[in-house]
Amino acid sequence: MRAGELTLGFGVHHLRTTATPMLAKAAGFDWLFIDTEHGALSTLDATQICLAALPLGITPVVRICADALDEGTRALDNGAQGIVVPHVDTPEQARRVADAFRFPPQGHRSWGGPPYVYGLRAPAIDVAQGEINRELLLVVMIETPEAVANADAIAAVEGIDALLFGTSDLTTTMGIAGQLGHPRVQQAYRDVAAACQRHGKVLGMGGVYDETNARMYIGLGARLVLGGGDHQFLLEGGTARTRFLRALV
Protein backbone atom coordinates (compact mmCIF):
# COMPACT_ATOMS: atom_id res chain seq x y z
CA MET A 1 0.00 0.00 0.00
CA ARG A 2 2.87 2.38 0.70
CA ALA A 3 3.92 1.87 -2.90
CA GLY A 4 0.38 2.51 -4.13
CA GLU A 5 -0.19 -1.12 -5.03
CA LEU A 6 -3.50 -2.98 -4.76
CA THR A 7 -3.91 -5.24 -1.72
CA LEU A 8 -6.70 -7.79 -1.71
CA GLY A 9 -8.45 -9.05 1.42
CA PHE A 10 -10.07 -12.45 1.99
CA GLY A 11 -13.08 -12.17 4.29
CA VAL A 12 -13.20 -14.79 7.06
CA HIS A 13 -16.68 -15.22 8.52
CA HIS A 14 -17.26 -18.94 9.00
CA LEU A 15 -14.04 -20.83 8.21
CA ARG A 16 -12.27 -21.58 11.48
CA THR A 17 -9.44 -23.97 10.71
CA THR A 18 -5.77 -23.09 10.39
CA ALA A 19 -6.00 -23.99 6.68
CA THR A 20 -7.92 -20.74 6.08
CA PRO A 21 -4.83 -18.51 5.63
CA MET A 22 -3.25 -21.10 3.34
CA LEU A 23 -6.37 -21.18 1.16
CA ALA A 24 -6.39 -17.39 0.95
CA LYS A 25 -2.69 -17.25 0.16
CA ALA A 26 -2.98 -19.92 -2.52
CA ALA A 27 -5.82 -17.97 -4.15
CA GLY A 28 -3.65 -14.86 -4.42
CA PHE A 29 -4.94 -12.73 -1.55
CA ASP A 30 -2.68 -10.46 0.50
CA TRP A 31 -4.50 -10.11 3.82
CA LEU A 32 -7.25 -11.67 5.89
CA PHE A 33 -10.32 -9.73 7.00
CA ILE A 34 -11.14 -11.74 10.12
CA ASP A 35 -14.63 -10.55 10.94
CA THR A 36 -15.60 -10.67 14.61
CA GLU A 37 -18.28 -8.02 14.09
CA HIS A 38 -20.56 -10.08 11.85
CA GLY A 39 -18.72 -13.40 11.54
CA ALA A 40 -19.26 -16.48 13.72
CA LEU A 41 -15.77 -16.30 15.24
CA SER A 42 -14.60 -16.35 18.84
CA THR A 43 -11.41 -14.80 20.19
CA LEU A 44 -9.86 -18.27 20.14
CA ASP A 45 -10.89 -18.79 16.50
CA ALA A 46 -9.40 -15.45 15.49
CA THR A 47 -6.17 -16.21 17.38
CA GLN A 48 -5.68 -19.58 15.69
CA ILE A 49 -6.22 -18.04 12.24
CA CYS A 50 -3.82 -15.17 13.01
CA LEU A 51 -1.09 -17.53 14.24
CA ALA A 52 -1.45 -19.69 11.14
CA ALA A 53 -1.25 -16.63 8.87
CA LEU A 54 1.93 -15.09 10.30
CA PRO A 55 4.49 -17.56 8.90
CA LEU A 56 2.75 -17.55 5.51
CA GLY A 57 3.22 -13.84 4.90
CA ILE A 58 -0.49 -13.15 4.58
CA THR A 59 -1.43 -10.33 6.94
CA PRO A 60 -4.10 -11.09 9.58
CA VAL A 61 -6.41 -8.13 10.15
CA VAL A 62 -9.31 -8.36 12.61
CA ARG A 63 -12.53 -6.36 12.44
CA ILE A 64 -13.95 -5.78 15.89
CA CYS A 65 -17.30 -4.34 16.97
CA ALA A 66 -17.49 -0.55 17.13
CA ASP A 67 -17.31 -0.19 20.92
CA ALA A 68 -15.13 -3.23 21.65
CA LEU A 69 -11.69 -1.64 21.66
CA ASP A 70 -10.58 -4.07 24.37
CA GLU A 71 -11.24 -6.93 21.96
CA GLY A 72 -8.97 -5.17 19.47
CA THR A 73 -6.05 -5.08 21.88
CA ARG A 74 -6.60 -8.77 22.64
CA ALA A 75 -6.52 -9.52 18.93
CA LEU A 76 -3.25 -7.59 18.55
CA ASP A 77 -1.74 -9.37 21.53
CA ASN A 78 -2.62 -12.68 19.91
CA GLY A 79 -1.19 -12.34 16.43
CA ALA A 80 -3.25 -9.76 14.53
CA GLN A 81 -1.24 -7.18 12.58
CA GLY A 82 -4.12 -4.84 11.91
CA ILE A 83 -7.48 -3.75 13.31
CA VAL A 84 -10.58 -2.52 11.51
CA VAL A 85 -13.06 -0.46 13.54
CA PRO A 86 -16.54 0.00 12.03
CA HIS A 87 -18.89 2.98 12.27
CA VAL A 88 -16.32 5.73 12.82
CA ASP A 89 -18.16 8.97 12.09
CA THR A 90 -16.02 11.65 13.75
CA PRO A 91 -12.38 12.58 14.26
CA GLU A 92 -12.90 12.17 18.00
CA GLN A 93 -13.77 8.52 17.48
CA ALA A 94 -10.78 8.09 15.18
CA ARG A 95 -8.44 9.60 17.79
CA ARG A 96 -9.81 7.18 20.38
CA VAL A 97 -9.00 4.27 18.05
CA ALA A 98 -5.44 5.47 17.43
CA ASP A 99 -4.88 6.05 21.13
CA ALA A 100 -6.13 2.57 22.07
CA PHE A 101 -3.98 0.62 19.62
CA ARG A 102 -0.67 2.51 19.45
CA PHE A 103 2.00 2.08 22.09
CA PRO A 104 3.32 5.18 23.89
CA PRO A 105 4.18 7.87 23.04
CA GLN A 106 1.64 7.72 20.17
CA GLY A 107 -1.05 6.04 22.29
CA HIS A 108 -1.78 4.15 25.46
CA ARG A 109 -1.81 0.48 24.47
CA SER A 110 -0.34 -1.70 27.18
CA TRP A 111 2.43 -4.24 26.61
CA GLY A 112 1.34 -7.81 27.28
CA GLY A 113 0.70 -11.23 25.86
CA PRO A 114 3.10 -13.46 23.92
CA PRO A 115 4.95 -11.52 21.20
CA TYR A 116 3.59 -13.72 18.42
CA VAL A 117 4.48 -11.25 15.66
CA TYR A 118 8.12 -11.89 16.61
CA GLY A 119 7.79 -15.66 16.77
CA LEU A 120 7.86 -15.34 20.58
CA ARG A 121 11.37 -13.81 20.52
CA ALA A 122 10.81 -10.09 20.67
CA PRO A 123 13.63 -7.54 20.91
CA ALA A 124 13.79 -5.07 23.79
CA ILE A 125 10.39 -3.64 24.66
CA ASP A 126 11.15 -0.13 23.42
CA VAL A 127 12.42 -1.48 20.11
CA ALA A 128 9.45 -3.82 19.70
CA GLN A 129 6.90 -1.14 20.50
CA GLY A 130 8.45 1.26 18.01
CA GLU A 131 8.51 -1.37 15.27
CA ILE A 132 4.94 -2.47 15.94
CA ASN A 133 3.71 1.13 15.92
CA ARG A 134 5.29 1.62 12.49
CA GLU A 135 3.95 -1.61 10.97
CA LEU A 136 0.52 -1.86 12.61
CA LEU A 137 -2.41 -1.25 10.22
CA LEU A 138 -5.25 0.78 11.76
CA VAL A 139 -8.37 1.09 9.63
CA VAL A 140 -11.56 3.02 10.33
CA MET A 141 -14.74 2.38 8.39
CA ILE A 142 -16.75 5.05 6.60
CA GLU A 143 -20.40 3.98 6.64
CA THR A 144 -22.59 7.08 7.01
CA PRO A 145 -23.05 10.49 5.36
CA GLU A 146 -21.70 11.99 8.61
CA ALA A 147 -18.48 10.03 8.22
CA VAL A 148 -18.15 11.15 4.60
CA ALA A 149 -18.68 14.77 5.64
CA ASN A 150 -15.99 14.37 8.32
CA ALA A 151 -13.59 12.41 6.10
CA ASP A 152 -10.98 15.15 5.91
CA ALA A 153 -10.83 15.52 9.69
CA ILE A 154 -10.80 11.73 10.17
CA ALA A 155 -8.01 11.29 7.61
CA ALA A 156 -6.00 13.97 9.41
CA VAL A 157 -5.85 11.92 12.62
CA GLU A 158 -2.32 10.74 13.30
CA GLY A 159 -2.14 7.00 13.75
CA ILE A 160 -4.99 6.13 11.39
CA ASP A 161 -3.69 4.45 8.23
CA ALA A 162 -6.73 3.80 6.05
CA LEU A 163 -10.37 4.80 5.57
CA LEU A 164 -12.40 1.80 4.43
CA PHE A 165 -15.83 2.20 2.90
CA GLY A 166 -18.53 -0.07 4.23
CA THR A 167 -20.39 0.59 1.01
CA SER A 168 -23.49 -1.47 1.76
CA ASP A 169 -24.10 0.27 5.08
CA LEU A 170 -23.38 3.62 3.47
CA THR A 171 -26.11 3.09 0.89
CA THR A 172 -28.51 2.07 3.67
CA THR A 173 -27.82 5.15 5.76
CA MET A 174 -28.20 7.28 2.63
CA GLY A 175 -31.65 5.80 2.02
CA ILE A 176 -30.58 4.12 -1.24
CA ALA A 177 -29.91 0.60 0.08
CA GLY A 178 -27.99 -1.61 -2.30
CA GLN A 179 -27.43 1.05 -4.98
CA LEU A 180 -23.66 0.71 -4.98
CA GLY A 181 -23.16 2.73 -8.15
CA HIS A 182 -25.50 5.59 -7.23
CA PRO A 183 -24.12 9.07 -8.05
CA ARG A 184 -24.17 9.98 -4.34
CA VAL A 185 -22.03 6.96 -3.54
CA GLN A 186 -19.66 7.83 -6.36
CA GLN A 187 -19.35 11.35 -4.97
CA ALA A 188 -18.69 9.96 -1.50
CA TYR A 189 -15.83 7.87 -2.87
CA ARG A 190 -14.39 10.90 -4.64
CA ASP A 191 -14.62 13.03 -1.48
CA VAL A 192 -13.00 10.42 0.78
CA ALA A 193 -10.36 9.63 -1.84
CA ALA A 194 -9.41 13.30 -1.94
CA ALA A 195 -9.19 13.42 1.87
CA CYS A 196 -6.95 10.34 1.89
CA GLN A 197 -4.70 11.84 -0.74
CA ARG A 198 -4.37 15.12 1.17
CA HIS A 199 -3.33 13.37 4.36
CA GLY A 200 -1.34 10.43 3.01
CA LYS A 201 -3.87 7.79 3.98
CA VAL A 202 -5.09 4.73 2.07
CA LEU A 203 -8.57 4.50 0.57
CA GLY A 204 -10.35 1.20 1.19
CA MET A 205 -13.31 -0.48 -0.48
CA GLY A 206 -15.61 -3.02 1.13
CA GLY A 207 -18.98 -4.38 0.10
CA VAL A 208 -18.46 -3.91 -3.66
CA TYR A 209 -18.09 -7.20 -5.50
CA ASP A 210 -19.53 -6.57 -8.96
CA GLU A 211 -17.00 -5.85 -11.69
CA THR A 212 -18.53 -2.56 -12.88
CA ASN A 213 -18.50 -0.72 -9.57
CA ALA A 214 -15.30 -2.34 -8.33
CA ARG A 215 -13.50 -1.12 -11.44
CA MET A 216 -14.86 2.39 -10.91
CA TYR A 217 -13.90 2.71 -7.24
CA ILE A 218 -10.48 1.13 -7.67
CA GLY A 219 -10.05 3.64 -10.49
CA LEU A 220 -10.75 6.38 -7.95
CA GLY A 221 -7.86 5.14 -5.83
CA ALA A 222 -9.08 2.32 -3.57
CA ARG A 223 -6.07 0.16 -2.72
CA LEU A 224 -7.16 -1.65 0.47
CA VAL A 225 -9.80 -3.84 -1.16
CA LEU A 226 -11.95 -6.53 0.43
CA GLY A 227 -12.35 -9.07 -2.35
CA GLY A 228 -15.20 -11.05 -0.81
CA GLY A 229 -15.89 -13.55 1.95
CA ASP A 230 -15.47 -17.27 2.52
CA HIS A 231 -19.20 -18.02 2.32
CA GLN A 232 -19.46 -15.99 -0.88
CA PHE A 233 -16.53 -17.78 -2.52
CA LEU A 234 -17.87 -21.21 -1.53
CA LEU A 235 -21.35 -20.39 -2.78
CA GLU A 236 -20.13 -19.00 -6.09
CA GLY A 237 -17.68 -21.83 -6.73
CA GLY A 238 -20.11 -24.52 -5.62
CA THR A 239 -22.94 -23.08 -7.70
CA ALA A 240 -20.78 -22.91 -10.82
CA ARG A 241 -19.71 -26.53 -10.32
CA THR A 242 -23.21 -27.93 -9.78
CA ARG A 243 -24.53 -26.05 -12.81
CA PHE A 244 -21.74 -27.50 -14.96
CA LEU A 245 -22.26 -31.06 -13.76
CA ARG A 246 -26.05 -30.98 -14.07
CA ALA A 247 -25.74 -29.60 -17.59
CA LEU A 248 -23.84 -32.72 -18.64
CA VAL A 249 -26.97 -34.88 -18.35
Secondary-structure topology with pairs:
Blueprint: E1 7-12, H1 20-26, E2 31-35, H2 43-53, E3 59-63, H3 69-77, E4 82-85, H4 91-101, H5 125-135, E5 137-142, H6 145-149, H7 151-155, E6 162-166, H8 167-174, H9 183-199, E7 202-206, H10 211-219, E8 224-229, H11 230-247
Parallel strand pairs: 1-2, 1-8, 2-3, 3-4, 4-5, 5-6, 6-7, 7-8
Short description:
The protein has 249 residues and is of the alpha/beta class. Helix content is 45%, strand content 17%. It has a single domain (7-247), classed as Alpha-Beta Barrel (TIM Barrel).
Describe this structure in words.
The chain has helices spanning 20-26, 43-53, 69-77, 91-101, 125-135, 145-149, 151-155, 167-174, 183-199, 211-219, 230-247, and strands at 7-12, 31-35, 59-63, 82-85, 137-142, 162-166, 202-206, 224-229. The model has no long low-confidence stretch (mean pLDDT 97). The relative contact order is 0.12. The chain has a single domain (7-247), classed as Phosphoenolpyruvate-binding domains (TIM Barrel, Alpha-Beta Barrel), CATH 3.20.20.60. The protein has eleven helices and eight strands. The protein is α/β, with parallel strands linked by helices and 249 residues long. Strands 1-2-3-4-5-6-7-8 form an eight-stranded parallel barrel, surrounded by eight helices.
**Strand segment tally:** 8
Q: What order do the strands of the largest sheet run in, or round the barrel if closed?
A: 1-2-3-4-5-6-7-8
Structurally, the number of domains stands at 1
Spatial extent as radius of gyration: 18 Å
Overall geometry:
globular
Instruction: Return the CATH topology.
Output: TIM Barrel
The averaged pLDDT comes out at: 97
